[in-house]
Amino acid sequence: MINRVIRLGFIFILLILLQVLFFNNIQFSGYVNPYVYIMFILLLPVEMPAWLLLILSFFTGLVMDLFSGTPGMHASASLVAGFIRPYVLRITSPRDGYEPGANPSMLVYGLKWFLIYASLIIFVHHLVLFYLEVFRFADFFRTLLRVILSFLFSLSFIVLLEYIRKGK
Amino acid sequence: MRNLLNFLSKYNNLLVFILLQIIAIYLLSTANDYHNTQMVKGIRAMTIGIEKKVSNARTYFHLHEISRIMAAENSSLRTRLERLSGETEKLFFSVTDTVYNQQYTFTHAEVINNSVNRQKNFLTIDRGRQQGISPDMAVIAGDNIVGIIVGCSDNYSVAMSLLNLDFRVSARLKSTGYFGSMTWEGSDPSHAVLSEIPQHVTFGIGDTVETTGYSTIFPEGIIIGTVSGFEKTGGDFYRIGVSLSTDFRRLRHVTVVGNLRKEEQLELENQYQ
User: How many domains does chain A have?
Assistant: First the structure.
């Protein structure tokens, strides 16, 4: 149990540093801003109570906000991601359900499962995040394009990070 | 009471979600008032330690480039000094009043936080109220435009970058002197748009676009970029694409420009408006 908490804390710090020091500085045109910190919410244990999940997602977003000077933006988007996670887990549940104490990771349930699970959450998160950032519906389709492109990049990086974890 | 408790236990997750979402939206909307940078300032104070370390490390890798720019600036200043000292000898006057006829003040500052990939980009510089910086001063890099100071703490200031959907500046074509309004479109950090130039004006690709000095913030003739393309829009105006001459991605050393006669001009203008 304690081990698990320490491991998650380590992953959290690593992801935030990766996001702040590396991904926030990435610049392929104005359309692609990958956000990989959302991976932390993906990796939390399946059985975690929903209220704790919500508080942790909110906190994760808030820490990101501190580093990007946009109070509330990431917090709001991550919170939505945390809120829909239990529903997404239910939809993507394998035939014989999740094992007790399981981590929702690619190592256990395979690439295909992980892709569906991660895509749903990352896409909703990006959708909320980018529209909150623009805060107007004037350039609706341009923003949608940014959402889709950034989503593809975030997903690729997160799957890549899962492979690195797997290799370790 | 029992029903209420039942209700709470049934929907407690939804309630936690709504409560936290309200906090998030509240934060977002209070910080959304760009000229009220109080929120951003408070948070910057917390993360500024880390940012400073990162920024120090980056400066180290750019030392070569920086020394080149400094040398170029030195030589241009020395040329100017030489020219001025020649003139004073000729005209026989000695001035001890250092602000005699001076309109602009220049303060050097270093960028310690910057972004180009958001829709509303801001940058933080390491000079503040104690160094004489105040809101509405202009920020330039060399001769190129950067942004406008929007908030100051004692030792730091936050400036709205030109790469911000809310940024507007009066700009003109250097060749003809016709002026219009300059904005950024939110997608490409090296391009902006100059609008409101009437269609009878002739100009070519590569023409320089510079500030007009009408706004009391920017001095006249600060370079914004060059014309990279144009199209006709309804209402007899051109929409001119401008390729920015400032590279916002590697901004390190900037100069803050204050206008000493701003109050005088604004006061006079207000009397007639």
Answer: 1
Phi, psi of B198 (to 5 degrees): -65, 155
* Shared fold status for B49-92+101-164+251-260 and B169-248: yes
Q: Write out the residue range of the structural domain in which residue A116 sits.
A: 2-167
Which DSSP symbol is given to B258? Answer: E
Cβ-nearest to A51 among B12, B32, B118: B12
Q: Residue B182: CB partners within 8 Å, gap ≥ 6?
A: B162, B168, B169, B170, B171, B192, B193, B194, B209, B224, B242
> If you count residue pairs, one on A and one on B, with CB atoms under 8 Å apart, how many are there?
92
In whole angstroms, what is the distance from residue B165 CA to residue A134 CA?
Answer: 9
The class (CATH top level) of B169-248 is mainly beta
Looking at the domain B49-92+101-164+251-260, which fold is it?
Thrombin, subunit H (2.40.10)
Per-residue pLDDT of chain B (273 residues; tens, 9 = 90+): 677 777 777 777 888 888 888 888 787 777 655 434 545 665 666 677 777 888 888 888 888 888 888 888 887 787 777 667 655 555 555 555 555 667 788 888 888 888 888 888 899 998 889 888 998 899 998 888 999 999 999 889 999 999 998 888 999 998 888 888 999 988 888 899 998 888 888 888 888 999 988 888 888 888 999 999 888 877 788 889 999 988 888 888 888 888 888 888 888 888 887
Which of chain B's residues have a Cβ under 8 Å away from the Cβ of A27? 116-117, 189, 249
Phi, psi dihedral angles at A141 (to 5 degrees): -75, -30
Q: What CATH number is attached to the domain comprising A122? A: 1.10.1760
Q: Enter the pTM of the model.
A: 0.56
Closest CB to B189: pick one of A30, A75, A83. A30
Q: What is the ipTM of this complex?
A: 0.77
The Cα of B264 is separated from the nearest Cα of chain A by a number of Å equal to 35
For chain B, what are the domain ranges?
A: 2-32, 49-92+101-164+251-260, 169-248
- Among B24, B113, B117, beta carbon nearest to A30: B117
